[in-house]
Automatic annotation (TrEMBL):
Source species of the chain: Chitinophaga qingshengii
Domain Thioredoxin: 332-485
Signal peptide start and end residues: 1-21
Protein name: Redoxin domain-containing protein
Keyword match DNA damage: no
Signal as UniProt keyword: yes
Phylogenetic classification of the source organism: Bacteria, Pseudomonadati, Bacteroidota, Chitinophagia, Chitinophagales
Length: 486
């Protein structure tokens, strides 16, 4: 903060001509203009810096937030953080304080206390005044409703589920509440919520697909259908369950493994072992076999094949997965110089990418707060085990975008308590810029993101996210490593 104020005071003037020109640009065009400057020449960036400091003289909080966001784009995170802090002090009933205050609602587990906090929060920050951000109020309402669902207060859970206002998020709210109340046996009420979610998502796929957020709203359609089919299955309404599963199957290509798994369960219950066998074979071929659905395959396999060759059959399907992944990733190979870096590991040892020249390096960016990152780790452990006797393949796990002061201790505790044999490096924030330099140099926009770097120091593959399924993830890594070595 002390470093920021002199700069703020010294950079607050704009020429009259430029100010006049700005007034002719509408807000959307203005933001595009700012973004172009942020990506432009050093002169453009200097001009943008001057303009953003000028915005901090505004009496509008939105101008301060625009300035902060642009400084983030300019990779001046420390300045951006300071502007946010000052904005919170300058506008105590504004957006920054509102967004920070809502965390108290999320952090409370008791539903009654959570609702009390929510009512106090919404009284202090009325939705009408900041109604462009309806979704943050929906998140808060959903948090209260979810707590009531967990506590088996059905009326309150339904009340909050039906209070969601953002059209594109209604289905998500209904389906989430349905999952919560099902844990307490409220099947009839859950069916009502899921049918509403199905209807809503279908409309966003068809008649409402031009509306804001339609893609997100429609995304849940196959999952809602599969969840409803599960309830019909539980009630032994097998033929009705198949109707909904056929709709889920027709909704996307390829068919998601959860749908095929649910199909197999229904078919097994109906005694149609051959079709169940085919469905579960598809799940295996997609690399999504697990301890639960393997039992479905075993039952179907025994009825159809009648021998003891299940494991060999599974291996044969996985072999097809390996080849499929190779073909898929062969189309995605790139060749870009990998940014060098030197970091400390969780034990304080210095590690450089240059230390592994001549080796293939799998670089995995993650964080302890990142659910998909942690979900991918069992698969990454299996991938490491596959290459444990290959000295030319190295795995490095770079913890980044930390959200707590004890990030090093937290990262070390997580990997050791889960028996992950990972070499964890810490990409901590630079105290001057506020940037996590390594993740920024690799232009990562979301985690988990993995890179495969060949022995000559070139990035050959970049892969973001985790789709689930250990076999699929191992096959993906194996394909990338193999292709990078060619």
């Amino acid at each position: 903060m002390k470093k920021l104020l002199p700069v703020l005071l010294g950079g607050c003037l704009l020429t009259a001509a430029h100010t006049h020109a700005q007034t002719k640009i509408n807000q959307d065009s203005l933001m595009r203009y700012y973004s172009r400057l942020a990506k432009g020449s050093e002169g453009d960036k200097a001009l943008l810096t001057q303009q953003m400091y000028a915005l901090t003289k505004s009496k509008k909080e939105t101008d301060w937030l625009t300035a902060a966001n642009m400084f983030y784009q300019l990779k001046k995170n420390s300045i951006a953080d300071s502007i946010y802090k000052v904005a919170g002090e300058k506008f105590p009933a504004g957006i920054v304080v509102r967004n920070k205050s809502v965390e108290t609602i999320y952090n409370e587990n008791d539903p009654v206390k959570k609702e009390t906090l929510y009512k106090a929060w919404i009284k202090k920050f009325p939705q009408g005044k900041l109604n462009k951000d309806v979704i943050i109020y929906d998140y808060a309402r959903n948090s209260v409703g979810s707590a009531y669902a967990a506590a088996d207060n059905l009326p309150k859970a339904l009340e909050y589920a039906n209070s969601i206002e953002s059209p594109f998020w209604k289905g998500q709210g209904w389906a989430g509440t349905a999952a919560g109340i099902l844990k307490h046996g409220h099947t009839a009420e859950a069916k009502v919520l899921l049918k509403k979610a199905i209807k809503d998502a279908y409309e966003f796929k068809t008649t409402r697909k031009e509306e804001e957020g339609a893609g997100f709203a429609a995304m849940g359609y196959p999952g809602y259908l599969s969840s409803y089919a599960q309830l019909l299955f539980d009630d032994k309404e097998y033929d009705s369950a198949l109707v909904y599963l056929k709709r889920a199957e027709a909704a996307e290509t390829p068919v998601r493994p959860q749908v095929n798994e649910m199909y197999a369960r229904v078919l097994l219950a109906k005694g149609d072992y051959r079709q169940a066998y085919q469905r579960m074979s598809e799940v295996v071929a997609q690399g999504k076999l697990n301890a639960v659905n393997k039992e479905f395959l075993a039952t179907a396999y025994a009825k159809v094949r009648g021998d003891k060759g299940l494991e060999n059959y599974i291996d044969s399907l996985k072999g097809g997965l390996d080849e499929k992944m190779r073909q898929e990733f062969a189309k995605q190979i790139i060749k870009e110089p990998a940014p060098g870096f030197t970091l400390k590991d969780v034990d304080g040892n210095t590690v450089s990418l240059a230390d592994y020249k001549g080796k293939t390096v799998v670089l995995d960016f993650w964080a302890t707060w990142c659910g998909p990152c942690k979900a991918s780790f069992p698969a990454m452990k299996k991938a490491m085990e596959k290459y444990k006797n290959d000295p030319n393949v190295k795995f490095l796990f770079v913890h980044t975008w930390e959200k707590e002061e004890q990030a090093i201790a937290s990262a070390k505790k997580f990997v050791t308590s889960n028996n992950y044999p990972f070499e964890v490096l810490m990409d901590l924030k630079d105290p001057e810029t506020g940037l996590n330099k390594v993740v920024d140099s690799y232009k990562v926009t979301g985690i988990p993101t993995k890179f495969v770097i060949d022995g000559k120091g070139n990035i050959r593959f970049r892969f973001t996210g985790f789709s689930g399924g250990d076999d699929a993830a191992v096959a993906e890594v194996s394909a990338m490593v193999s292709l990078a070595n060619q």
